Amino acid sequence: MFSQIVGQQDIRTRLIEEAREERVPHALLFTGPAGCGKLAMAVSLAQYLLCSQPEEHDACGRCPSCKVSGRLAHPDLHFVFPVVRYKNAESSVCDAYMDQWRERLRKGLYFDLDDWLADMKADNQQALIYAAEAGQIQRKLALKAAMGGKKAMVVWLPEKMNAECANKLLKLIEEPPAGTHFLLVSNEPGKILPTILSRTQRIEMKGIPDSDIAEALARQHPDEDTAALARTAAGSYTAALKALDANRDSLLFLDLFIMLMRLSYQRKIKEMKKWSEQIAALGRERQKNFLAYCQKLIRENFVYNFRQPELNRMTRQESEFARNFARFVNERNVIPIMNELELAQRDIGQNVNPKFVFFDLALKMIVLLIQ
Length: 371
Known about the structure:
Elements: H1 9-20, E1 27-31, H2 38-50, H3 64-70, E2 77-80, H4 98-107, H5 113-120, H6 132-142, E3 151-156, H7 163-174, E4 180-185, H8 194-197, E5 201-204, H9 210-220, H10 226-233, H11 237-244, H12 248-266, H13 269-280, H14 284-304, H15 316-325, H16 334-349, H17 354-368
Parallel strand pairs: 1-4, 1-5, 2-3, 3-4
Helix pairs in contact: 1-2, 6-7, 9-10, 10-11, 12-13, 12-14, 12-17, 13-17, 14-15, 14-16, 16-17
């Protein structure tokens, strides 16, 4: 329900008004920075559309539709999301993971792909929306609404949809059955098939203000320093929750980043090779997340040199390292370093051997850090 969304009041008001006036487009695309509540907004809108007695500010929560959609078991509320290969291509569909998906949603609507991969026990596999899913979607939407109202299809991360699946769905998204709404939730809309993009109405969501994040955290964790957590989260409630839980990956990534920079500066080639092997043992999604984390820290360390604390968003541990390291990130090397990190992230996404990718990155850092 809309009440579970953190901030984004203007978007909530707009969507409710459109729903009450029967003006909700048949295909909406929610975009914006990670953790801003796109999935929460899409699911809440779906529940509002399915409610038989919608109220002025939210679904009623009492009608038969609300009771089953609240359990995420509404027969007319469908979900599509990336999955890892299950037995074979034909069986690699969302229904094979629906129990895990509903359990993940019940834990909360603020999570990321890494959390979902852990739920699927994906190991080193990458998650995709396979071509077989198109047939499942067509079959589900061809049926009449089980409860006599509307139907909603929430598609999480459509950029993970392979080309064959996307092409099969073009006509359906353009002209869905009466009373059917596609609600797409994307972190990287630029990677969505352009012909699908053109068939949707885009809703751009912004990062959540620190005050809204702090207020939401304080309701559940009044003893925490929610203001500091909110500031570090940089507009992402998902990031705030991870920080609140002392996310082990963030601590691990910081340790690995520090190790990379120190070994590269000291030119310890043998230890750098061991470092690359340690990173290679992580799952591919975690490797990409680590490289994204490195880019964030490089940006923060570059900004740190301006001596404007209000511009930095780092944890206490990150700030302590930046105190001595920031001077090595300057206008001569910040762009080349970022380029190398982005290139490594691209190579990992294309299944290049991670040992080669990370060892090559470490060697390049030797030269870049002395500029």
